[in-house]
Amino acid sequence: MPLGSIHSELRVHQSEDHSRAVSITTPASRVIVPHDYPTSGLRLGMLGEVEARLFIGQTGSVESCYVTATSGYARLDETVCRYVNRRGRFVPASDLQGDPTTGVVFITTCFWMSPEQALSRREAEQDRFAESISRLPSVPGAREEICPRLGPPADERRTD
């Protein structure tokens, strides 16, 4: 199970002066995927929704991406524009004469974790933390003071 979830929706803006709007050729679910959830965002529990406006050029590529509603976390906002620029594929809009022209697409992306994902993330972090603690120099009682829930090191446990 991924440690974070991402859901995106792409919406095309139809301009009155275009005979054909931009067409989306990459599904939103493939533009930004759960693996793209920033590691630091997962670790820090960053959640939120990002809305961005994409300007699509005459060749169908993303010319620019502007965040219009922030998640409150720059890292999540930047992730949306980074991966839309890399993976977004579009057929450009056409003007009334049928020539390629620029267009606008909106993307809304939600970064979230279910309680199960948050627990899994926390357990993974605790395992990494416990491993790093075990590498600290041995000072009697220090580990138990820092990590009381871990109990004494295996070599100090009594076996009755």
How would you characterize the overall build of this protein?
The protein has about 160 residues and is an alpha+beta fold. It has two domains: about 5-115, TolA/TonB C-terminal domain; about 115-150. Helix content is about 30%, strand content about 30%. The chain has five helices and nine strands. It has helices at about 30, 40-45, 75-85, 115-135, 140-145, and strands at about 5-15, 20, 25, 50-55, 60-70, 90, 95, 100, 105-110. The strands form three sheets. The chain has a four-stranded antiparallel sheet. A three-stranded antiparallel sheet has the order 2-7-8, with no helix packed on it. Strand 7 (about 95) and strand 8 (about 100) form a beta hairpin. The longest helix is centred in the last third of the chain and has 20 residues, at about 115-135. The chain is elongated and about 65 Å long.
